[in-house]
Structure formats: structure tokens, C-alpha cells
Amino acid sequence: MSTLRFQALKEALNRKPVKITEPGRRSDIFSSNVFNVNVMRQFLTKEAFENVTEAMRTGKKIDRNVADHISTGMKEWAISKGVTHYTHWFQPLTGTTAEKHDSFFEPLNDGLAIEKFGGSQLVQQEPDASSFPSGGIRNTFEARGYTAWDPTSPAFIWGTTLCIPTIFVSYTGEALDNKTPLLRALQAMDSAATNVVKYFDKNVKKVNATLGWEQEYFLIDSALVASRPDISLTGRTLLGHSPAKGQQLDDHYFGSIPSRAIAFMMDLEIECMKLGIPVKTRHNEVAPNQFELAPIFEEANLAVDHNSLIMDVMRKVGERHNLAVLMHEKPFAGINGSGKHNNWSLATDTGTNLLSPGSTPMKNLQFLTFFINTIKAVYDNEELLRACIASASNDHRLGANEAPPAIISVFIGSQLTKVLDELEKVTDGKLSPQEKTDLKLNVVGKIPEILRDNTDRNRTSSFAFTGNKFEFRAVGSLANCANAMTVLNSIVAKQLKDFKVEVDKLIKDKKMKKDDAIFNVLRDYIKKSKKIRFEGDGYGEAWEKEAEKRGLSNNRTTPEALKAQISKKTISLYKDLEVMNKVEIEARHEIELEEYAMRIQIEGRIIGDIARNHVIPTAVRYQNILIENVRGLKEIYTDDFTRHAKEQLEIIESISAHIAGINSNVNAMIEARKVANKIEDDAEKKAFAYCDNVKPYFEEIRYHCDKLELLVDDELWPLAKYRELLFTR
Predict the structure, then answer these.
(1) Is residue 11 part of a domain?
(2) Helices within 128-286 (DSSP H only)
(3) Which of 44, 386, 393, 518 could form a disulfide with 49 if both were Cys (CB 3.0 to 4.6 A apart)?
């Protein structure tokens, strides 16, 4: 194994950057592999074009006859680009994407063949659903699932395959994917937000949720990764001592991007351009060999698809550069982890960002309406928001003093805090003309001026307002954005519905003017949601104590956090909005608990294997070398040998103590796993058993392994060390 480590190092050090040639202007190749509106105009009949664009705009179903015309045009375009196969591309509850390729090729009876692709293949397929988690929705013997085309997200070409974005449902109609609930949540948001925005602009017919994600990741040479069984199988290091220098000097973030990394980025960006993913920003991140990629914001459904796609594209492009892309939230202990900040906002079909202040008091009142309602939604549903980002991998990051804590709070900055403090003082009931004028001119009217110089940012907040959007910073780098977006859009949609009911009631029952009613309800919301707002350091113990006083949850682990998914409140929320029914909610809860237990189970097996099969034999080998040395000293110095062999004897004893520590903890962990594995019918109980009784042994085992790493001869150590993984460029 040590041989493998040094072979990997030699290989990694001899790598040269892959030469990348730009195929031309980025603007010329943008969306060249996407079946977008411009392509549709060329390849579709007028009727088919109008049908599909209306479906994209309104969600209207496409007639089967028209689907035949669309599929013909889509096939001809794809074949002209060298495509041979097609697939329904979907996002099952595994967190990744799924595809099953079928050829256009169709043999004829007379020994000839044609390329065939009909409307039925475009609209619906029946992939084998037995390999996907079901959460009790269906049995394996009836594991049928259907994929159905989602025209709101355009088809695209990847390699020689036409990929058709689809939803994935069971034969009984329940959602088996991440996309279906998201589409429902976005529909609910559109309806609720459009009704509210009509208070300010009667011309608005549609409101879209927008998303701009930031993808953080590590690039590690593939040979070095192959020498680490833990990274290969779990995406993170289960052991490894911190290097003498990690990220302490902060010389990486603004440093020049390493040559191999920049070549990878260029290659990736070219692929993104072809796929219509509008990537804009690339840079180093805080940790060595850590980087970030970010696009311009898009409509939320399309942005989610693009992020799911890019995670796959990154891995495939990485292979061309002999680089492994690590997206685990915490691949290296003591080193900055990776997140996926979700920048969320709302945009009207008239081109207005509803979370951006305007130039008039009326526009600013519109901004405040959506701004305050979002804060109120987060306050009322903070546990559900924490649940949607819960995973075994993200638990390592949240609260690790480099990422937002597990406590959900909202940061808005000192200047907007002053605005809300002023609004909190609004008179109950009807406002006097003087009061209303003063409020509009001196409080609401000054918001753009305030925000122009609003430079304070809080990197420790899980949910921060950043000028014209909210940044949900706690989303994990491995996560599918759909989960966070489904929850966020659902809770805000519900809040906006409630807001409209309250405002309309005041207008009708209290005979208030619209502005008075809005001010009164907003004042009430500011008071009720004040506890969720926090401007200080989210990393400190003081905030934990303060949050507890405020009644905010601090669900540190996934099993704890996931309870909010199946509360009566959550079930009622999704039912009212028609986002998910009780069966779908409970299925997802069961799946996520099972996944958590499986991941901890796998990690437990691997750390036990590495500790016993790699670390202990290496330690014993080195100990034997020391024993031989001591034996030689004893032969030379006889009774006086202890004076000359004191340090060697101490190291021998230390090695023995650490070996004993490893062995006893591995044995105890195995016994705890056996107990947990016997729990079969209660996914929650099993998840808690792995969380509370198995996982704690990981740190104990790691401690002893990492101490041995410092004691054992470097030439013998079998695993690539942190300094090699992080600083080999």
C-alpha cells in the first residue's frame, strides 16, 4: 500500500496541464447543444412551436399528436449534431441524476434500418424503478415508475445522447423524484406572489422564483484519490493528520489559480457554454486545492437542472484532466468545507426583482412586503428549513466554525434593521396623513439610498440578505438544490397567501386603505419574526445560548433535524399548497433516514477496514524495526541499554497504546453496528442508533490513527497524507 502511495505521488507530480483551445467566442457557442426557442423555430412546425412555447410558459399539457411533430423536429436536430441515442434525464431521490439510453436506430423487415423517435418516446417512458429508493410507496414486485417530459426545461445534448429533462412518478402517481415537488412549489409561489404583487402593479401576470447557486469543490489528483480507500468510497477522508500548514496564512483565496485547475476550469466552462449553463465566476476558495464556480441567476427550475447537470459534467471533465472532483461538504478535517450557497429571489414577467428596492416609496413598499414576508416565513418554518439541508455529509460542515451554524437565523444588516425598527413603531389602525407621508418619505423612501452603501456582510449567517436577494448559505455542496428550493418557495408562498388574506380582511372589515392595511400587517410581522434576526457572530457559543433563549431550534444532527419533515404543520403546509401529499412526505422522510444510516454504516465499515488492515499492520511493522533497534542496543550496552534506547522504548509503548485504542474502539463500533442493524422496521430508530451509538467511535479511532501517522516512518505510511492531497498541484 505504501508503494501505491509513492507511485501515486510520482504520477501526480509528473502531470502536465491539459492544453485547452477555446473554440471561439463564448457567446457564439452558448446553448449550441440546447433545444431552445431559436432551434425550435427552425425545426418545428408552427403549430408544434406554439404548443411547446405555451407549455413552457403556462405549464399546459401538450397534445399527443403535436408531440409527434415535436419529437420529429427534435430528432432531426439531434441527428444533425451527431447524436445516436436519447434518454429521459431525471432526478430520483438518490440526490444524483439518472439516465437510461435508447438508440434512435430501428431495424426494418427487409434488412434496412431507420432512425426513429416518436411522440410517445418523448412524452413518457417506463424505466425500471426497482433500483431507486421508494420509501414504502411501492413494492419491488410492482416497481414501476414513469418518466414524463418537462417542457419547461429544454432538452440538451451531452456527448452523443439527447437528454430530455423529465419528472419521475410511480404508477400510482406519487412523485419519486426531486423535480415534481419543486415544480408544484414554484406554481404555488407564482400564484401567491402574483396575487400580492397586484397590490402594486396590476400588469404583472406571472412571478418566477430565481436561483443563482455557487458550487464549491476540491480538485485532487485521481492517482492520489485511488490510493485512499476512504475518499474513493465515501468522498471524504476518514482519517489523516492535519498538515503543518493548512489554510492558516490565507494565501490561497486570492492567489493565482494553479495551471491544472485553470485548464480544468476552461474545459468545464466550454462544456457549460454548449449546454446553456451561464457560468460567470471562477476562483480559488479558502482551502488549498478548493475552488468555486458560479453562474448568473436563472429561473429556479432551470437553475436546479443546470446544477444537477453540472455536478455530472464536472466529474466527467475531471477525468480528462486526471483530477477527481470532491463535492463532499467536509472532505478534510480541520480544513474549510464546501457549500452550495443558494441565492434566491422573485422576478415578475414585467422585469422587476421583487427583492430589490425601487426609486419610489411605492416600489419600496413592494420590496418591504416581499422582504418582510420572507423573514416571517423563515421564522415560522426554521426547523423545516434546517431539515431540507440535512444530510450525513452536511452535518460535518454545519456549525464547524467555517460555515453557518445548524441554527437558522436571518441577517439583514444594520441599516435595514433600522428601517424595520421604524416600521415597528407604525400606529395600530389607520395612519394619519402626516404619519403616512413621513413614513413614506423618511423611512420607506430612503431605502435605495441606504442600500447603496450597505456593505456589511455576515459570513456566519445561514440566511442572509445581500442587497437584492436572500442567500441561503447552509445548503451543502453535494445537495440537490431542489430540496432547498421546494421548501423555501413553499413556505414563502404560504406566507404570501396568509398575508393577502390579512390585508384584504383589514380593507374589507376595518375599511382601511390599501397602504394602511399593508403597513399594519407588516408591522405585526416585524414584531412576530424579530427573534429570527441576528446580526452577530453565528459561530460563537454565545449565539447558541441566545438562540435557545429566543426559542430557536438547534438540531445538530440529521435524524434530529428530519423530524420537522413529518410534523402536522409540514403535512398541512404541503397539502394546502398541493406540493406533496402525506404519502410522498413520509416516503421522503423514510428515504432520507435510510440513506443517513447507510452512509454511516458504510463509513464505519471503511474506517474499521483501514484502521485494522492498513494502519495497524504498518504500525506493527515500524514497531518491529524499533524493537530490532532496541535489541541491538541491548546487545551492545547490556544493562545500560535503557539510557540509550529510552526514546525508542517510549515510541514502542506509544504505538502499542494507540494500536490497543484502535482495536478496542473498532470492536466496540462493530458491536454497536450489529445492534443498529437488527433494527429493521423503524428507520428513525435505526438512524438515531447509527448517529448516537456508532458514529462517535469514528473520532476515537481517527485520533489514534492520526497519532500513529506522526509516529510511524513516512516511508512506511500507506495512505497519501493531507500535505500531499492538498498541496500537490
Answers:
(1) no
(2) 179-197, 222-226, 229-234, 259-274
(3) 44
| DSSP H or E run through 378 | helix 361-380
The helix/strand/coil state of 220 is strand
Residue reference for cell 409527434: 68
**Selection from 350, 329, 460, 362 nearest residue 405 by Cα:** 460
259 and 334 part of one domain: yes
454's CB contacts (< 8 A; 6+ apart) are 413, 415, 416, 467
380 plus 400 within the same structural domain: yes
- The 10 Å Cβ neighbour count of residue 316 is 13
Q: Count how many residues are written for the chain.
A: 729
pLDDT number for residue 57: 80
494: nearest Cα among 574, 425, 551: 574
Instruction: State how far the Cα of 607 lies from the Cα of 111, in Å rounded to an integer.
Output: 57
Q: Where are the alpha helices (DSSP H) in 381-428?
A: 382-387, 414-424
The DSSP result for 77-127, as a single string, is: HHHHTT--EEEEEB-BTTSS-B---EESEEE-TTS-EEE---HHHHHEE--
Per the domain annotation, does 645 fall within a domain?
A: yes
Diameter over CA atoms, the chain: 105
With cell 436519447, the residue in question is 86
The candidate with the shortest Cα–Cα distance to 227, out of 727, 620, 717, 729, is 717
| Angle value at C-alpha 150, between 347 and 33, nearest 5 degrees | 85
Look up residue 217 and give its three cell numbers: 469543490
| Residue 236, in any domain of the structure | yes
Are 236 and 188 found together in one domain? no
Q: What are the residues whose beta carbons fall under 8 Å from the beta carbon of 729, sequence distance 6 or more? A: 258, 259, 260, 261, 289
What Cα–Cα distance (Å) separates residue 713 from each residue in 229, 245, 571?
21, 20, 58
| 440 plus 463 within the same structural domain | yes
| CB contact set of 708 (below 8 Å; sequence gap of 6+) | 615, 618, 619, 655, 658, 659, 662
Residue 268 dihedral angles phi and psi, to the nearest 5°: -65, -45
Query: Is the pTM value of this prediction over 0.85?
Result: yes
Please give the DSSP secondary-structure letter assigned to residue 555. Answer: -
Residues 450 and 573 in one domain: yes
Question: Rounded to whole angstroms, how far apart are CA atoms 295 and 665?
Answer: 45
Q: What is the DSSP string of 501-554?
A: HHHHHHHHHS---HHHHHHHHHHHHHHHTGGGB--S-TTSHHHHHHHHHHT---
Residues of the domain holding 240: 215-338
C-beta atoms surrounding 706 within 10 Å: 17
Given this model, what pLDDT does residue 247 score?
66
Residue numbers of the chain with a pLDDT score lower than 50: 455
Q: What is the CATH number of the domain that holds 56?
A: 3.10.20.70
Residues 484 and 398 in one domain: yes
Please report the pLDDT score of residue 394 as a whole number.
95
Residue that the C-alpha cell 466554525 belongs to: 401
Residue 7 lies in a domain: no
3-state secondary structure of 298: strand
Looking at this protein, which amino acid is placed at residue 210? T
**Are 210 and 345 a contacting pair, CB within 8 Å?**
yes
